Amino acid sequence: MQNVHYLNLFLGAGAIILQVLSVVALYLLFIGPKKNTYLAFIDKHYLKLGFIISLCASLFSLVYSEIIGFAPCYLCWYQRVFTFPMFFIFGTAIWFKDRKIVKYVLPLLSVGFLISVYQNLIYYFKANASTLPCDASGASCYQQLVSEFGGYISIPMLALTAFVSLITIVLVAHFYKKED
Predict the structure, then answer these.
(1) Which residues of the chain, if any, have pLDDT below 70?
(2) Cβ–Cβ contacts within 10 Å for residue 179, how many?
(3) How crowded is residue 67: how many other Cβ atoms within 10 Å of its Cβ?
(4) Bridge partners, residue 153, by sequence
(5) pTM for the structure as a whole
(6) Which tens digit of pLDDT belongs to each residue from 33-71?
(7) Whole-angstrom Cα distance, residue 39 to residue 107?
(8) 37-62 vs 74-96: helix crossing angle, rounded to 10
């Protein structure tokens, strides 16, 4: 169980770093100066970044369920439907050097994001148990299987971070203009 704790800390720290980097990128994209080396880096490498983030999200989702044995709830399964294809899409785009995948990935990421927001609201604000979409007798949104950094980092927060990070890099790749 100690190894699981270290994995949770590692993923939690990574999630917090991704959250900060996403907020900075969104700030710079919509409010900050128009020309920026940070945004230029994201724009240049967005396919690789998307591939790495989506691969890690899919891989660690499977590690938690298939190796550690945390049964995913219904909402986790729905989010997986929108997460798992991402690394194939980003990988294929890298292979064919096709940067024009925004119209394919943004709808998938947006639906996954909305499901993740809903799950986080349930998880952190303890919705009425009778209104939960998950059965409390089995895998449930209420189960605190991962709780790091004072309870801030959880499996729902890890999923939300992945969706926000992927949406952020796709938005940067779509809206960032290199020339002024």
Answers:
(1) 127-143, 178-180
(2) 5
(3) 11
(4) 148
(5) 0.90
(6) 878 999 999 999 999 999 999 999 999 999 988 988 888
(7) 22
(8) 130
